[in-house]
């Protein structure tokens, strides 16, 4: 009788249909987080450019949507009488995404990174949220490779892991691969039409300097503890 009442009041899969794609697909990224207690405070640093402002607003919308999803899950599960384990699993995914986005907002290199994100997103006709989201899509591969290659060249002080924070939280190995893939595309002449314009916009030389790739491998050795 209890199961029949639940099925009548709320469809069994209604919670997961309303959850973000990374929850519906079972891909919970980042460390598990408890939904008990207040959300971690988000210290939002002021950004210093038009591109940074656009990315700032986009990420704030992402934060609001994630927090709204947690509140909606609380209400849904309270009405449906579902188990607390479902709430913990979905809430952990939402909180992991919130922390990832808050890290982007408070990161010390936001001004430059957000300029690059905004320029690449505009050049490809996509939203900044798509570039920084954890969703994997073949159509986003080249934009993310462009972001990684540009940041590696423009910000010699940024580690590969920190560059990865801006393209879905990928690890330093994936960032290294993305930069190499971008260089291979340039050498093969299969780059996006916006590539020359982006390099000109950020006052970079037309040709990729050979030092960029060497810097990438040096950083990888530093991050993994291998001797140079």
From TrEMBL:
GO molecular function: ATP binding; sequence-specific DNA binding
Listed InterPro entries: DnaA_C, Trp_repressor/repl_initiator
Residue stretches making up the Chromosomal replication initiator DnaA C-terminal domain: 112-182
Pfam families on file: Bac_DnaA_C (PF08299)
Gene Ontology biological process terms, A to Z: DNA replication initiation; regulation of DNA replication
CDD domains in the record: Bac_DnaA_C (cd06571)
Protein name, per record: Chromosomal replication initiator DnaA C-terminal domain-containing protein
